[in-house]
Amino acid sequence: MIASPALMNDEDLFKSYAAELTRYANGLVGPFDAGDVVTDAWLKAVSSANWDLVIDRRAYLYRTVLSVATDHHRSTLSRRLREVKVASPESFEVPLLDIDVLRAVERLSIQQRAAVHLTYWNDLTAEEVAARMGVSVGTVKRHLSRAKKRLKEWLA
């Protein structure tokens, strides 16, 4: 029998969610920074004064990863854009995706990118995405709608 996440010690909780949080962060900030974002998010979450009061720790960790990824994105946007311009398609670990699609998704806002990643790469419903992002279902649908519109424009 697996213990409830609220009852697990922090080490076991990290072992349980580290891989999925890293995949999520990978979709938000890319493979080079995903591990750092997850580590920073983990430290931010467990050092929070409210950590012991959190009931849904998985959702809390997803929101913290999103928050840290947003901060990371703001601080490194210009550097990342320069790197993408010089990167060759072979340097990406996901060879089945078109480089133009990856570049277009990277241009989306961090919230839109999170909604797209959780919806299309993780096959989650709008309700599940909303719970993980800590927003309403309507906000998720708005992010997805705007992302689709922008991707259609950029990839046309």
Quick overview of this protein structure:
The chain has 156 residues and is mainly α. 71% of the residues lie in helices and 0% in strands. The chain has helices at residues 10-29, 34-46, 57-86, 99-107, 110-121, 126-133, 137-155.
Mind explaining what this structure looks like?
This protein is an all-alpha fold and 156 residues long. The protein has a single domain (10-155), classed as PhyR, sigma-like (SL) domain (Butyryl-CoA Dehydrogenase, subunit A, domain 3). Helix content is 71%, strand content 0%. The protein has 7 helices and no strands. The chain has helices spanning 10-29, 34-46, 57-86, 99-107, 110-121, 126-133, 137-155. The chain is globular. The termini are far apart. 26% of the residues are buried.
Core attributes:
single chain, Butyryl-CoA Dehydrogenase, subunit A, domain 3, 156 residues, mainly alpha
Task: Give the helices and strands, then pairings.
Layout: H1 10-29, H2 34-46, H3 57-86, H4 99-107, H5 110-121, H6 126-133, H7 137-155
Helix pairs in contact: 1-2, 1-3, 1-5, 2-3, 4-7, 5-6, 5-7, 6-7
Question: What integer is the average pLDDT?
Answer: 83
Instruction: Give a quick account of the main beta sheet: strands, pairing sense, barrel closure.
Output: none
- What separation lies between the terminal Cα atoms? 51 Å
Helix content: over 70%
User: pLDDT under 50 segments (min length 5)?
Assistant: none
Question: For this structure, what is the CATH homologous superfamily?
Answer: PhyR, sigma-like (SL) domain
What is the count of helical runs?
Answer: 7
The CATH topology is Butyryl-CoA Dehydrogenase, subunit A, domain 3
CATH architecture: Up-down Bundle
Q: How many domains would you count in the coordinates?
A: 1
How would you spell out the order of helices and strands? HHHHHHH
What CATH first level would be assigned? Mainly Alpha
Shape: globular
Radius of gyration over alpha carbons? 16 Å
